[in-house]
Specification:
The chain is built from 8 helices and 12 strands. By secondary structure, it is an alpha/beta fold. Helix 7 crosses helix 8. The termini are far apart. This is Response regulator transcription factor.
């Protein structure tokens, strides 16, 4: 019974989503504003919040601010809800740290499927190798840790999964579609912007100069590969 925090100010939409999730045996906490939601991230006794469904259009703190606040304190998956398929809203939400998005109105089947997919990938699987050294970057697949020049680099789960996937085959070029399938567990439901946003966030944390990356390199017109150069 996973614990989902649903942040939505429209009462009718929130009640409908809550009913759907409870029917699928989720534990659900609800909030109508970001200010109300942030204290709920601590979860219930013995039942931490495992995923957040976050509407972007909130009174007070908007969804972008709430997402950044969540990312400052937690690595749990965040699925954002947007009332429009507006590219800028979607990109800004992904840059704020969201792992996925759905456009409202969303059917119960699609929402529950996206939540199940996010929860499936919430714990990256360690590979057989451990303590890999890549020009100052050390990736420990057993401990699921990343350090650079002996300094720990905390990564949200999707960025860690992305780094583990790319670094497992240095020099291999991965298309965005391949990464959506292997890292996000998505195919036609996915969006290449998920990959691009996660790459940009990851570069800000592991690269000396994100604009001139050594580790996560762009192969123009195709996708990405792991260096380092």
């Amino acid at each position: 019974m996973p614990h989902v925090l649903l942040i939505e100010d429209d009462i009718s939409v929130r009640d409908g989503m809550e009913l759907v999730l409870r029917r699928h045996d989720y534990v659900v906490s609800v909030a109508g504003t970001g200010e109300e939601a942030l204290p709920l991230l601590a979860g219930l006794p013995g039942k931490p919040v495992e995923l957040v469904v976050l509407d972007l259009m909130l009174p007070g703190m908007d969804g972008f601010e709430v997402c950044r606040a969540i990312r400052a304190r937690s690595t749990i998956p965040v699925i954002m809800l947007t009332a429009r398929g507006d590219d800028q809203d979607i990109v800004t939400g992904l840059e704020a740290g969201a792992d996925d998005y759905v456009v409202k109105p969303v059917t119960a089947r699609v929402l529950e499927a996206r939540i199940r997919a996010a929860l499936r990938r919430a714990e990256p699987l360690p590979g057989p190798r451990t303590g890999e050294h890549h020009a100052g970057l050390v990736i420990d697949r057993a401990a699921l840790t990343v350090t650079k020049l002996d300094t720990p680099i905390p990564l949200p789960l999707m960025e860690l999964r992305l780094l583990l996937e790319l670094s497992a085959a240095p020099g291999r070029v991965f298309s965005r579609e391949q990464l959506l399938s292997s890292v996000w567990d998505l195919d036609y439901l996915g969006d290449s912007r998920l990959v691009d946003a996660a790459v940009r966030r990851l570069r800000t944390k592991i690269e000396d100069l994100p604009a001139r990356p050594r580790y996560i390199q762009t192969v123009r017109g195709f996708g990405y590969r792991f260096g380092p150069l």
